[in-house]
Amino acid sequence: MNDLGIQTTMSPQEKAMTERLVREHNAKINEGKLTGQSLGKEDFLKLLTTQLSYQDPMSPMEDKEFIAQMAQFSSLEQMTNMAGDFKRLANMLSVSEANTALGKQVEVLDGERLIGGRVSAVDRSGTPQGAEPRVMVEGNYYEWSQVGRIFE
Question: What is the pTM of this model?
């Protein structure tokens, strides 16, 4: 009890119920996640919301702690956005690089086979956005990452 006569500690039953709720919430968060998969911004926001809803009203989170968590969330969101931007940039560079190979002789590694030929087409329409372009060599399409060497 505090000076006002209000109970500020949790009973064993309340503690057990809170721990059960946290375990259930964590299980919901982890449903469908692959082992080793990191938390995303939605997970971080859910954790923060859960933390705020179960905090002790007589001892709320310090302003500094809350501001630090919000700053972490903001940083996470910016890093997520940057990762998407870098992925789009890498895709544009791959397309540009593949376009410069048009008409040039290349070597393509297809499994264990090394195939040589001239690039007759570059295609990115059949791939999802963000996927690498494909090049046509000797009548077959290959992923750009399979091209090992480019000759003049």
Answer: 0.48
